[in-house]
């Protein structure tokens, strides 16, 4: 790349600005022209806006990598090929690949459990915090009854509940529940990261930073409840500032660090459709052993992609090395090496 | 085989010499003991041609200086350390497309369907980062897989260390060395003179008989 590494990607900027505009419009319209916007949460709004811009920017840049662009295109092609069938298959794919994450469970039950705790804790926290921040969700007293509330989604009144009821407790403590879930997962992950020699050898600073961030947000949030319930509100203001700071920094970290995988992972659905479409298509045949070894489509895609990323596996006199199956590649290397030491043995 | 640790001033290298493999499969078992992928053996051990010869050959990741696998990864999940180790796919990122499995010129990465991700040899990062020999090299009795300093190699082995390959028109330089006798003949062209299968002449007898 001859371009300076400091230049800003125009498409990324455009998508980032579009994302920010959508958030601001959603806030303005959803909060009934800011009537229900809670000014105390303006810092959180800044965090959300920054996160949306950053995630949209990085996603757009990521999609421009030749290999990502190719798979993105092929994934959508495969989806459109059998649209009706693929739409029907979508809920099951989302459930297995994104929500229940069985592929992690098969790797380790402990890691799967920890990941599920963090995943559902963050989902719950996001579902509460983001609508509150954007002014899309608020609570109003029902008439003159001080202990009865109604949930409003924008201007639409929905369920009513008694503050002293189980439902009331669950609603008012939703973020505490989320924090406990996340902390449970964080401790399981932390134990592995501190004690497993294999994990310690390959871990990167971002692994700890993500756990530290989740820990800070959850603990500072729980302390707000501790302050209001058991300390008569002492230190609440300071704790509130600390909690807001951790959440805002956490939101700002989303586009940069390990947690960006949240937005990358849905690409796995495109891969699933691509693989299914390829299974229906013609197989690739190895130029050496004549056996089928992959889909012809994927090999053709790789042969198109490789020159774009600076590789030339074409063979003088015709053909392409990429038409060789992995086993025969190992055989080629082995034979070539042994020929240079006078044969086997 | 070497016991003990390498010091901070040593620069040990990994050497693979497929022609010395005796097929004991110790490396296959040892690989599954690696701390970074416990229970999964990621080394390949090929039977060269079961019908014609008992010869076997191992294949580990050669850790290319410019790794094809990383360049074709749509999720940017394959990273290279400062030491030049091409690591296994980052678990949160890998989306299981198998591009790397199909594009690697050495045929190294494995797609593990159960985990829906690619896994590959990372030169036992848990061991080599602490100066220990990788699992496979620590158990290989014939030194087909070997780990040590270049000086040790010169003192104890014959042949030249080499790490430049040619795949069609593509040149590849690797961190892992192989062994050849004729270093002056240039890079190893994996397609040169291998137009027939080894079944045709597994021991090179016909080639030798040709005047």
Description:
- The complex is a heterodimer of chains A (345) and B (211).
- Chain A is mainly alpha-helical.
- In chain A, 66% of the residues lie in helices and 8% in strands.
- Chain A folds into 2 domains: 262 residues, Up-down Bundle (Fumarate Reductase Cytochrome B subunit); 57 residues, no CATH class.
- Chain A is elongated, with a radius of gyration of 26 Å.
- The two termini of chain A are 46 Å apart.
- Helices cover 17% and strands 20% of the residues of chain B.
- Chain B is built from 7 helices and 9 strands, in the order βαββααββααβαβββα.
Give a topology summary.
The complex is a heterodimer of chains A (345) and B (211).
Chain A: H1 10-30, H2 42-63, H3 66-81, H4 83-99, H5 102-105, H6 109-133, E1 137-142, E2 145-153, E3 156-162, H7 166-172, H8 174-195, H9 197-202, H10 205-230, H11 236-253, H12 261-264, H13 267-280, E4 283-285, E5 292-295, H14 296-308, H15 326-339
Antiparallel strand pairs in A: 1-2, 2-3, 4-5
Chain B: E1 13-16, H1 26-31, E2 44-47, E3 56-59, H2 68-71, H3 99-103, E4 110-112, E5 117-119, H4 125-128, H5 135-139, E6 145-148, H6 150-156, E7 160-167, E8 170-180, E9 188-189, H7 205-209
């Amino acid at each position: 790349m001859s371009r300076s590494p400091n230049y800003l990607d125009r498409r990324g900027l455009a998508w980032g600005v579009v994302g920010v505009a959508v958030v601001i419009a959603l806030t303005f319209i959803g909060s009934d022209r800011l009537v229900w916007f809670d000014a105390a949460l303006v810092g959180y709004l800044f965090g959300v806006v920054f996160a949306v811009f950053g995630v949209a920017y990085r996603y757009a840049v990521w999609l421009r990598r030749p290999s990502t662009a190719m798979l993105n295109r092929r994934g959508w092609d495969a989806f459109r090929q059998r649209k009706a069938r693929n739409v029907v298959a979508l809920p099951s794919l989302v459930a297995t690949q994104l929500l229940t994450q069985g592929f992690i469970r098969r790797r380790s039950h402990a890691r799967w459990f920890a990941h599920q705790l963090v995943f559902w804790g963050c989902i719950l926290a996001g579902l509460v915090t983001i609508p509150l921040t954007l002014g899309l969700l608020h609570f109003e007293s029902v008439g003159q009854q001080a202990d009865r509330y109604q949930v409003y989604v924008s201007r639409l009144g929905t369920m009513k509940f008694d503050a002293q009821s189980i439902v009331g407790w669950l609603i008012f403590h939703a973020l505490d529940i989320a924090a406990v879930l996340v902390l449970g997962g964080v401790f399981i992950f932390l134990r592995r990261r501190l004690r497993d020699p294999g994990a310690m050898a390959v871990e990167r600073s971002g692994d700890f930073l993500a756990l530290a961030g989740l820990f800070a947000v959850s603990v500072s949030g729980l302390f707000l409840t501790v302050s209001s319930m058991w300390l008569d509100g002492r230190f609440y203001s300071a704790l509130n500032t600390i909690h807001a700071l951790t959440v805002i920094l956490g939101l700002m970290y989303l586009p940069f660090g390990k947690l960006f995988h949240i937005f990358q992972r849905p690409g796995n659905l495109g891969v699933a459709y691509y693989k299914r479409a390829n299974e229906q298509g013609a197989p690739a045949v190895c130029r050496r052993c004549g056996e089928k070894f992959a889909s012809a489509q994927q090999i053709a895609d790789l042969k198109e992609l490789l020159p774009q990323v600076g590789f030339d596996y074409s063979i003088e006199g015709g053909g392409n090395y990429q038409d060789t199956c992995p086993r025969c590649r190992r055989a080629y290397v082995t034979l070539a090496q042994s020929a240079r030491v006078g044969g086997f043995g | 085989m070497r016991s003990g640790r390498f010091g901070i001033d040593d620069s040990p290298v990994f050497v693979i010499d497929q022609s010395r493999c005796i097929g004991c499969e110790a490396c296959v078992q040892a690989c599954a003991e690696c701390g970074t992928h416990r229970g999964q053996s990621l080394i390949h051990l090929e039977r060269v041609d079961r019908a014609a010869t008992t010869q076997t050959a191992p294949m580990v990741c050669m850790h290319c200086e410019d790794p094809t696998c990383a360049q074709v990864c749509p999720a940017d999940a394959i990273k290279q350390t400062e030491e030049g180790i091409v690591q296994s796919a980052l678990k949160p990122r890998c989306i299981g497309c198998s591009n790397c499995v199909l594009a690697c010129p050495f045929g190294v990465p494995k797609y593990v369907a159960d985990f829906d991700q690619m896994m590959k040899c990372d030169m036992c990062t848990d061991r080599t980062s602490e100066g220990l020999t990788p699992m496979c090299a620590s158990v290989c009795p014939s030194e087909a897989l070997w780990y040590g300093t270049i000086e040790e190699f010169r003192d104890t082995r014959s042949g030249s260390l080499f790490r430049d390959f040619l795949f069609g028109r593509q040149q590849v330089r690797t961190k892992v060395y192989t062994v050849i006798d004729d270093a002056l003949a240039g890079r190893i062209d994996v397609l040169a003179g291998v137009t027939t299968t080894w079944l045709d002449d597994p021991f090179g007898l016909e080639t030798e008989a040709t005047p």
